[in-house]
From TrEMBL:
Organism: Zobellella aerophila
InterPro entries: Ala_racemase_N (IPR001608), PLP-binding_barrel (IPR029066), PyrdxlP_homeostasis (IPR011078)
Alanine racemase N-terminal domain location: 20-233
Described purpose of this protein according to its UniProt entry: Pyridoxal 5'-phosphate (PLP)-binding protein, which is involved in PLP homeostasis.
S-adenosyl-L-methionine is among the record's keywords: no
Full protein name: Pyridoxal phosphate homeostasis protein
Record-linked Pfam families: Ala_racemase_N (PF01168)
Keywords, sorted A to Z: Pyridoxal phosphate
Gene3D superfamilies, per database record: Alanine racemase
PANTHER family per record: PROLINE SYNTHETASE CO-TRANSCRIBED BACTERIAL HOMOLOG PROTEIN (PTHR10146), PYRIDOXAL PHOSPHATE HOMEOSTASIS PROTEIN (PTHR10146:SF14)
SUPFAM superfamilies for this protein: PLP-binding barrel (SSF51419)
Domain of life: Bacteria
Family per record: Belongs to the pyridoxal phosphate-binding protein YggS/PROSC family.
Modified residues (N6-(pyridoxal phosphate)lysine): 41
Amino acid sequence: MVINDMNNIAQHLQLVQDRIAKAASESSRPLGDIHLLAVSKTKPIADIEQAYAAGQRQFGENYVQEAIEKIQQLTHKYPDMRWHLIGPLQSNKSRQVAEHFDWVQTVDRLKIAQRLSEQRPSHLPPLNICLQVNVSGESSKSGLIPAEALALAASLADLPGLRLRGLMAIPEHTDDVARLESQFLELKQLFDRMAEIYPDVDTLSMGMSEDLEMAVACGSTLVRVGTAIFGTRN
Ligand SMILES: *Cc1c(COP(=O)(O)O)cnc(C)c1O
């Protein structure tokens, strides 16, 4: 398979949708509960337009500057595209993010949440937020430990520019399937506790190109897929 052939984006999207459908059916979950975020970081505008033409509406980007350029070029042409920031967010970029994105999945401290809320333009709906949780406990990874996530969720409830939607995690890269599964399940447990307290919480963002089946089996509602749609990144 020539995975970098641009004309294959629609085909790859279909393959990913098929994988999601199969995983949903195997765990007896309604397919409508599982959404696909196409991760377009480092990929050109033309690739995003191909994915859009094939029906994809939600896109994920990691780097603020790159993302803003894409959003500014695409937004007028395709007003129903939705943009998620899934990469780290520094405070000096928060205003641009609050003005251009629909979702930020990497909130892990109150300070940044407060800035995003204050800087969210009043003509836009509240910014959708996922708290990033570090389930693997690796010190190299950003994200909250589970107990901190519940505390931060409580503080977010008072911020009018934000709408808390759920949790996001990037598990450690491991071939140990059981270990990965236990991390996904720990996240699912935390998500269920949050959803009981906060009625808007409906999003559990976990699973990528290589592990989306297990993520769906463990309760993911949003899989973030880059390589399997757009090909390998340089
Ligand atoms: C790049 C990235 C993805 C997509 O990863 P693939 O393995 O290419 O599917 C998903 N989530 C995050 C946070 C990423 O940075």
